[in-house]
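ingest -> validate -> predict -> emit
validate: passed (alphabet ok, no gaps, 321 aa)
predict: started
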Amino acid sequence: MSLAVFEDRFQLRAAFTISRGSRTEARVLRVEVTRGGVTGRGECVPYARYGETVDSVRAQIAGLPGDVTRDALQGLLAPGAARNAVDCALWDLEAKQAGRPVWQLAGLQEPGPEITAYTLSLDAPAAMQAAAARHAHRPLLKIKLGTADDLARLEAVRAGAPEARLIVDANEGWTAESYAALAPHLARLGVALVEQPLPAGDDDALAGLPRLVPLCADESCHDRASLPGLAGKYDMVNIKLDKTGGLTEALALRDAAQAAGYGIMVGCMIGSSLAMAPAVLVAQGAAVVDLDAPLLLAEDRDPPLAYDAAGVHPPDSELWG
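emit:
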């Protein structure tokens, strides 16, 4: 078996801004695992917030034995982008060799389309209202916030999309005091969910605050080992394959989180359809799906995932799985 790593870059349709900064392109790593003339593919997005760079993740992958198995991989790499790309490539390889889709190999129900959020980048209130108006036909909008003056942005988005379901992602940008002050307005404006209002290391304060809007752990939840630390602070967990380290752990985390009483959100980093494809399997039946990254790209894989009024569709086997 051979394992190869490639860097791909995808330009975004527009600058994408969150509380931590902006980007105009997606830099991803594509892993190809080949055995007996059959090749499986996976993609990851190295993320600086978790101490990852393209070079560091490439080095982790390059250090793996060429004949690594999916079971062995779980102990060889920690949860993160490197393990994700290899894990998903190995699932794709298994499916192609077996002539059966990944969902069957994993013992899942046949997947269907899922409505996904569409993300509005952090910007001035007027710009965010205009963006909300352009996308007001979408059933679910996700708003990037996380600054000291977010109420005006929130009001502007609601004015631009009065009927859309809204969720908010603060990306760790608030303090306990600023969140407590904003929470009544989030409830008043019909926000259905808030992701990661406080920094992951400072979120104990959430346990003592009134729960006016459901809270979802993102940066605070990586894999099953994160679950004990979320008790009393969060109502949901955001499962991202680049955090869990691949589809294998993502499915296990989903089951464990549900058993512990958490609602499920399935999200993504800014990557291509190849990165989203395995996440569509995890997203089946999730309370919130946020797999819109390909819609933010100026270019995508060929073939891409299909998006329409029914949502994001499961991948064609030519793409993955």
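Residues 81-98 form the longest helix (18 residues).
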